[in-house]
UniProtKB/TrEMBL annotation:
Residues 6-180 form the Ketoreductase domain. Belongs to the short-chain dehydrogenases/reductases (SDR) family. Pfam families: adh_short_C2. This is SDR family oxidoreductase. Keywords: Oxidoreductase. PANTHER family: 5-KETO-D-GLUCONATE 5-REDUCTASE, ALCOHOL DEHYDROGENASE, PUTATIVE (AFU_ORTHOLOGUE AFUA_3G03445)-RELATED. It comes from Paraburkholderia edwinii. SUPFAM superfamilies: NAD(P)-binding Rossmann-fold domains.
Amino acid sequence: MKLKDKVVLITGGTSGIGFEAARLFRDEGAHVVVIGTNPARLTSAASELGGDVLAIRADLRHPADIDAAIKETIAKFGRIDIVYANAGAATAAPFDEVTSEQIDEQFALNFKGLFFTVQKAAPYLSAGSSIVVTTSFLNEVGAPGLSILSATKAAVRSLVRSLGAELAPRGIRVNAVSPGPIATPFHGKLGLSAEQVEEAASGLQASVPLKRLGQASEVAKAALFLASDDASYVTGAELVVDGGLTQI
Ligand SMILES: NC(=O)c1ccc[n+]([C@@H]2O[C@H](COP(=O)([O-])OP(=O)(O)OC[C@H]3O[C@@H](n4cnc5c(N)ncnc54)[C@H](OP(=O)(O)O)[C@@H]3O)[C@@H](O)[C@H]2O)c1
């Protein structure tokens, strides 16, 4: 078991990539804490994961919610060994229709929420701990309608290097996993019609050298590598899991 008795905090652990990571990390021996906002998804994730899983409702756009979630985690498990800061969401819009509120909203979750999750968890991490974040293939390619999501992910990519430098003296590694187009509920929440989502998915699928969408479990395996001691000499890096989309 790669994560035996490790305490792992996974934001966005109730759906898609985060949920598959929670399942995999649990199977590798971890005590898992999942964070999300939707009560039904929290209940269902907790019951599917079973065991001593802790499911916490917290809106990461609000630093007070992050404080409360960390406090609850420490009250139950006493420490944190691994943070997988993965929660993210987006609203698609052509650049001439993007509003100030949309920019604030997406940065509030994808960048600030992630930043404060790491900042507030950091005091409870010790040497050998690992932080993994989820970026995106959108760091590397331009996609119409996704300028703000892409900018948030580019900011997170940069943050991985900065935090990697700041936390290296404490023996804490910081890395990113960068998914390509993955079959999860994410695309259905972009504010597009089902037809537009379908069209975008087939376009992307055709552009991916491996000619298919990825599975959440395939990203979870890369996150496991970065989270575990298998990656003990890896920090500041971004592991790309995108079927070759940004690489070939
Ligand atoms: N799917 C893709 O093609 C793809 C590609 C590249 C990168 N990514 C990135 O992968 C990460 C996971 O996405 P996914 O595809 O697994 O999507 P998903 O299935 O929609 O999962 C998103 C998760 O984030 C949580 N979340 C959303 N808003 C939140 C908030 N304000 N506070 C706390 N938690 C919140 C959701 O919980 P609730 O629903 O309970 O709020 C859910 O657990 C995201 O950062 C996304 O940008 C995805």
